[in-house]
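Interim report, section 4.2 (structural modelling).
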Amino acid sequence: MAKLILNNVSKDFGTGRPAVSGLSLEVREGGFLALLGPSGCGKTTVLRMIAGFEAPSDGAIYLGERLLADSEKSLPPERRNMAMVFQSYALWPHMTVAENVGYPLKVRGVSKDIHRARIGEALDTVRLADYADRRPADLSGGQRQRVALARCLVTQPDVVLLDEPLANLDRHLRQEMEETFRDFHRRSGATMVYVTHDQSEAMALATDIAVMSHGKLLQVAPPEEIYARPEGRLVGGLIGRGAILSLALPDGAPRKIDWQALREGLDKPSPADRPMADVLVRPEDVHLSGEGLAARIRASLYEGERYSLTLELDDGQTLRAFSRHRPQIDEPTRVTITGAWRL
Ligand code: ADP
Ligand code: MG
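Predicted structure of the assembly:
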C-alpha cells in the first residue's frame, strides 16, 4: 500500500466546460477521504479516473511512486489493484455469502487454500463470519451491503473507492451503514475514497474531507478543521449549519472575529475602499440573552432535543441559533455571539 496522489488532474469531455480542472490532492495510506460536493461537481469523474475507467486529459495520478495515469497513458482498472463499490451492490442470489465473497478470487484463479483464508478474513472484518453459508435472500439490507464490502476486500486492494453507497437507503439503514463503514475502515486499514453529496455523512465518516465545486477543489482538511475554519463562502455554506453576516472590518482583521469586532462591524457602513467581509456564525455560538444585539425570532423548527431558530437582526441580516425552549415567533429578543469566522 502507498499514498494516492492526484497531481493537477483535469478531465475535459469536450462539452465546453471541464468536468474536473486542476485538482491536486493526496490520500495517505490508510486514510479515509470523503470527496464532497453538490451533484454535477465532478466527484464521480474523479473516482472513475482513480479507478481507471476514465483517463485524465491533463495531470497525473500516482499510487506511491507508481504512475497510474497521465494524459499519455492510463493503466486499465484491473492493473491498479483497487476495488470500487457501486451503489447497487449486486450479489449473486444463487450463491452463498462465502461464494459471493470469493467470486473475485475464483475469476482470478487464486488457489483454493488462499481462497478460503481470504474469505474468512474478509467476512471477519465485516463481522459476518457466522453467515458464510447463508444466501443473500436470508440477509437484511445492511448485511448484504457488508457482504459487498467483504467481496471487495478479498482481492486485498490498495484503495477502496465508494460512490455514494448510501444514497438510496432510508435514514435508519444509513446510520447503521455509516457505523459499518467506520468499522470497516478501522478493521481493514484500507485507504478509502468515499464520494458523497451529504456533508453530515462526510463529517461522520472521513478522516479528511475534500470539498469540490464546479470541477475544482476548494479545500481539503480534517472534518473538525473544515467545520471550524472553512475557506470561503462556498465551503462555509456547504459544511455544517450557520449564517453568513456581512461586516465592515478594519484592514488586517484576524480570521477569528470576537464579539467586540463583530458589534463594531455591524454598526459601521461599508468602508469606501473595501467590500464588506463575509463572516460565518455557527448557531451554537449564538446565545439568546437579555443583552447584546436586538433581534426577532422569525422561524423555529423543532428537532426533538432542541429548537432550531432563524433570527433577524435589526439591519435585516439573518442568524441561526438553538434554543431548549419553545420560542415565541416574532418576539423581540437579544443575542450575544461568542464565535465568528471570516470566510
Ligand atoms: P458528480 O458525481 O459530482 O455528480 P460527475 O462527475 O458525474 O459529477 O459529472 C461532472 C460533470 O461532467 C457533469 O456536468 C456531467 O454532466 C459531466 N460528465 C460526466 N461524465 C461525462 C461523460 N462521459 N461525457 C460528458 N460529460 C460527462
Ligand atoms: Mg456522481
